[in-house]
Task: inverse folding
């Protein structure tokens, strides 16, 4: 983090900030007479209204974490349908990053409509052969490479899910950057689902926090279970202010990030042995594979940062193929001034260090 912070140029991600800098941004975002929230009123209620408006929903409820919000959404689906089964992707956030909380805390069971590296199709939902309470679509499916269905594919799958009597839930932690590929506005996308979860720190750069949007009935249920899960926190105004700042600053720029990600991806694909997926990217995030061990790539990236003050990409992980590593690339504000030539030339300098 220290090396990245000291860099003059950043290709993937955003430069880390200090606590003092973060506090300065929060102070600038606060209205002079704004008072702290008290167990969910004031600033929290204001953010909830804003998110409901952005998504075209009747109501939205602020949660301290997306894991909590998604548990509540899936629990609600089970209770209103009387079905204790949820349709999930095995690479979905609930399975990979939430420690299967829906099962261990709520007692629900899951079925996997598909193991393909994409969201389920309408035909796969028809073929499930058993009733489910909720069908979850992760937009985009992060651990498959930030991939999205087409608009017709998503619309058809949601229609079929509803015909079977299931609710549709969107894991929309990154739904903000899904609009260019789907070529639809946020209210139209969220309108396909019965509930949508959004994150305020992924892409928007907030401190923490999430929201669950849907009907007023869902919101009332969500507030009850948020309290029971321990999410009725005394004051959350720092996260709320940061969320507003992210919506003000980043949301309008996301289409530009997505367009630039395609430029970056095409340039990276020119590197010897490189594989980019998906190509072109569906959002402003995608995956890059290079034919070297992760440790050597991480060492080379750090050396490049320390010696040239240029940040390429970090977090390289070894894959199942010996000698090949993968990193997630995020096109954000700092990368916008990188030309395709800049990207390729920097990548070649990185590989030169790897091969020394």
Result:
């Amino acid at each position: 983090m220290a090396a990245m912070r000291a860099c003059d140029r950043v290709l993937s991600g955003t430069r880390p900030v200090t606590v003092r800098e973060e506090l300065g941004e929060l102070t600038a975002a606060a209205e002079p007479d704004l008072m702290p929230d008290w167990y969910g009123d004031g600033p929290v209620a204001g953010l909830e209204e804003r998110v409901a408006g952005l998504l075209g929903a009747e109501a939205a409820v602020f949660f301290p974490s997306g894991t909590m919000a998604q548990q509540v959404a899936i629990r609600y689906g089970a209770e209103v349908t009387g079905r204790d089964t949820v349709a999930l992707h095995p690479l979905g956030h609930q399975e990979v990053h939430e420690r299967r909380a829906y099962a261990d805390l709520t007692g629900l069971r899951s079925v996997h409509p598909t193991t393909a590296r994409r969201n389920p199709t309408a035909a796969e939902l028809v073929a499930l052969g058993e009733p489910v309470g909720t069908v979850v679509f992760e937009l985009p499916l992060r651990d498959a490479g930030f991939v999205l269905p087409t608009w017709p594919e998503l619309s058809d799958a949601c229609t079929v899910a509803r015909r079977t009597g299931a609710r549709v839930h969107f894991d929309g932690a990154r739904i903000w950057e899904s609009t260019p590929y789907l070529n639809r506005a946020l209210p139209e996308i969220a309108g396909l689902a019965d509930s949508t979860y959004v994150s305020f720190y992924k892409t928007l750069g907030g401190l923490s926090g999430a929201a669950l949007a849907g009907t007023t009935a869902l919101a009332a249920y969500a507030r009850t279970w948020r309290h029971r899960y321990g999410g009725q926190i005394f004051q959350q105004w720092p996260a709320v202010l940061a969320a507003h700042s992210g919506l003000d600053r980043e949301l309008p720029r996301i289409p530009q990030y997505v367009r630039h990600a395609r430029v970056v991806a095409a340039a990276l694909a020119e590197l010897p042995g490189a594989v980019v997926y998906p190509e072109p990217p569906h959002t402003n995030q995608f995956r890059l594979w290079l034919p070297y061990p992760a440790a050597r790539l991480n060492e080379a990236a750090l050396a490049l940062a320390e010696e040239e003050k240029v940040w390429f990409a970090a977090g390289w992980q070894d894959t199942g193929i010996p000698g090949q590593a993968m990193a997630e690339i995020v096109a954000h504000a700092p990368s916008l001034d990188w030309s395709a030539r800049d990207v390729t030339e920097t990548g070649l300098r990185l590989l030169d260090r790897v091969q020394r």
The first strand starts at residue 9 and ends at 10. The chain has two domains: 2-15+252-355, 37-234.
